[in-house]
Amino acid sequence: MTDGLNVAMQPGTPAARMSLLLVEDDDADVMLVSRYLRRRGGDIALIVARDGEEALAMLRAGEAVPRPYVILTDLNMPGMSGHELIEEIRCDRALSNSVIFVISSSRLDEDIQQAYAHHVAGYLSKQMAPAEMEKSLRIVFDYCETVHLPS
């Protein structure tokens, strides 16, 4: 099921400059990211996939996640994990240059090492106080609005 959640834009407004694909199976975490993005404002379109398989299908479809985009993915999800998703993206010529951030409750060194071995842009921990979490997400949002990515 594709949510196609888009919290940064209202109907009838110009298209967003950047898309943020959130790959997350936890509704509370989706709402948290959505709330922080809405509070921030700006022109980032939030698109939600509930697992790695759905995210990969959306990315390969092209129109579901318009470029330029940044991916923010959890690691521990049913079906295709975040690690498997990242590996699939890095092996796909059309997607290999995707910018990916990880957001996970795992602080295991092996998870962090594996993520960076697949060239993620950053690894965020979910186990933070709300103010720290908002600060971490703000880094991702700033990245989306500041860095020039391929279309």
Q: What features would you highlight for this structure?
A:
five-stranded parallel beta sheet; disordered N terminus; 151 residues; 5 strands
What does this 3D model show about the protein?
It is built from 5 helices and 5 strands; from the N terminus they run βαβαβαβαβα. It has one domain (18-145): 3-Layer(aba) Sandwich (Rossmann fold). The chain starts with 17 loop residues before the first strand and ends in a 5-residue tail after the last helix. The longest helix is centred in the last third of the chain and has 17 residues, at 130-146. Mean pLDDT is 88; it is low at 1-14. It is 40% helix and 18% strand.
Number of strands: 5
Main sheet: which strands, in order across? 2-1-3-4-5
Mean pLDDT: 88
Main sheet makeup: 5 strands, parallel
Beta-strand proportion: 15-25%
Secondary-structure element string: EHEHEHEHEH
CATH architecture: 3-Layer(aba) Sandwich
Structural category is alpha/beta
Tell me the CATH superfamily. Response regulator
Helix content: 25-40%
**Structure annotation, total helices:** 5
In whole angstroms, how far apart are the ends?
26 Å
- Kindly give the count of domains: 1
Q: Which ranges are low-confidence, i.e. pLDDT below 50, for 5 or more consecutive residues?
A: 1-14
Which geometry do the CA atoms define? globular
| CATH topology assignment | Rossmann fold
Radius of gyration from the alpha-carbon trace, in angstroms: 14 Å
Kindly provide the name of the CATH class.
Answer: Alpha Beta
